[in-house]
Amino acid sequence: MAAEANAQTSAQAVRRPIVETLRTVFGPLVQLLIFVVGSAVALSLLVILLSLVQLGARPDLLTRTLTILPQVLIDGLVRGFLFSTIALGYTMVYGVLEFINFAHGEIFMVGGVTGAAVGLFLASIGLLEGMNPLFFVLLVVLIGMIVSGTLAVTVERVAYRPLRGTPRLVPLISAIGVSLVLQDVVRLIMTNSPMGFNARYNAPDFGPPIRLFEMTLGDRPVPIIISPKALVFISAAVIMLIVLNYLVNATRLGKAIRATAQDMPTASLMGINVNRIITLTFLIGGALGGAAGALFGLNVGTVNPYMGFIPGLKAFTAAVLGGIGNITGAMVGGLVLGFLEAFVASYLSLFTNGALSGAAYADIVAFSILILILIFRPSGLLGESTTQKV
């Protein structure tokens, strides 16, 4: 009996950490799913309501609204995961050092340019044609992560570590300076190489768009499609978010990162090498930015030295929207912002009958949200409900 009791106790002791790990890793993803579904439903109902308001003057508006709605949701997911993967770099650095690394957009850009350089090299030696697309994605993402992660660590060592302990404005100015330097250095390299300023992102053929399903509106069938590159981008982003969540919340390294973020002097006294943890934080954030840049370049087809500036600012907006310093908040903020931008870009022109261009006003919406969040809820959507930061 005693042996059986001991065996049951041991089994429960083993089972408890597994359950706790699963809850820690996948719990935030459930929260993320709730925000994704909630944002999609709320915005969909809003545009349908607006189309019903104008139904008398424009009888075809509701049909046109419903026709493009599924495609707008897919576009919002792609944009949202882009902002989320970049925002994670902002939120990790802020969680540990409590300053905004405004050079992170350029880390993202370097990942995209690196991916384009790999594609150009493979094309020049004749290996690109016929290469398995998934192998190509793995290759450019891995090299982009290595290059961008190494660059982020170098930036931290050269431009940020000597300024640690100074007023927060000092490293912020340094980050802006690093951003400008990286832009011009990459521009110099690209314009004096076969890539050129607007470099084409060479990639193997990913095949035709994937038809998800087909809707029938009236007598007209409407196919809902997604490009294979966008599907790869979404899948890779989800995998990266799951791995990062596991790393930060269920490993010894993650515990050390969270301890350093909570109280750096005490963490140092407890035996944690604070400098090493900060370096690893920059390495992880930079690698995520590089992977996002490589996937983004693959998705849009071209890269240039200034491609990271606007996405970097929008990712910062997403991090603030979700609650900067909070990993789940960065994910949530990125996806919510992605949906908002996609709906404005697609429906503003439709509802104003062409008087306003939605694509031109999408950026205004993003930065208006930043201003409103800073005024009315500086902690972000999840800032108050989460006690653990990165």
UniProtKB/TrEMBL annotation:
Organism domain of life = Bacteria
The signal peptide, as residue positions, is none
Q: Which CDD domains match?
A: TM_PBP1_LivH_like
Do the record's keywords include Nucleotide-binding?
A: no
Q: What processes does the entry annotate via GO biological process terms?
A: D-alanine transmembrane transport; L-alanine transport; L-isoleucine import across plasma membrane
| UniProt cross-references to InterPro entries, sorted A to Z | ABC_transp_permease, BCAA_transport_permease
Provide the protein's localization.
Cell membrane
Q: Name one Pfam family in it.
A: BPD_transp_2
Q: Would you name any one GO CC term?
A: plasma membrane
What's its membrane topology? Multi-pass membrane protein
One GO MF term: L-valine transmembrane transporter activity
* Main location as per UniProt: membrane
Write out the entry's keywords from A to Z.
Amino-acid transport, Cell inner membrane, Cell membrane, Membrane, Transmembrane, Transmembrane helix, Transport
Task: Show the stretches that span the lipid bilayer.
Answer: 32-57, 77-100, 107-128, 134-155, 167-190, 230-248, 277-298, 318-343, 355-376
Q: Which family does it belong to?
A: Belongs to the binding-protein-dependent transport system permease family. LivHM subfamily.
This protein's name: ABC transporter permease
Species annotation: Candidatus Chloroploca asiatica
Q: What is the lineage of its organism?
A: Bacteria, Bacillati, Chloroflexota, Chloroflexia, Chloroflexales
